[in-house]
Amino acid sequence: MSKKEIVNENTPMLPALLKDLVVAMVIAGAVLYFIRPTIVKQTSMQSTMNPNDYLIMYRQAYRSKAPERGDIIIFKSELPDEEGKDKLLIKRVIGLPGDEIQIKNQKVYINGKKYKENYLKDGYTTGEGTWNVPEGHYFVMGDNRVVSVDSRYTEVGYVDKDRIQGKAVLRLFPFNKIKTF
Fold this sequence. Notes:
- By secondary structure, the chain is of the alpha+beta class.
- Helix content is 17%, strand content 35%.
- The strands form two sheets. Strands 1, 2, 3, 4, 9, 10, 11 and 12 form an eight-stranded antiparallel sheet that branches. It has a four-stranded antiparallel sheet with strand order 7-6-5-8, with no helix packed on it.
- A hairpin with a 5-residue loop joins β11 and β12 (179-180).
- The radius of gyration is 23 Å and the shape is elongated.
- The relative contact order is 0.19.
């Protein structure tokens, strides 16, 4: 067999391989338009989520609807990360636009009614105060209230809807803790 015959036999494979690569890239791009893998790095959402949990964030969750109380969201804070960019935080939505949030006696009250929270790591909320959530913003807190830097603190404050990147919908890792949110 001559070299010419070998090249001619393999030549048709190159366009097919290129086509397969382009199709795979288009599919990957489309999937990443809707979801984004995310790794939890902090302890502020314990016991619901732990450091190194691998999550799927639904990026289009709030295109046509607003976040709901209890949703776990990922948003860009104004806190700097290691590279000086806006740090992504993951927290639970507690207060909706127009709500009055009050923390007293280690409990959360929304519009004067005690808010039941079965997911708290330690069963109570630290700090005291009253916050009135402005329109277009959300009041968020971590489930591990003892360590969470969230809307109770001026460093984070209220979260503007435009800063929300998406909703945590699925924990993929560790495999023994796969869960939807």
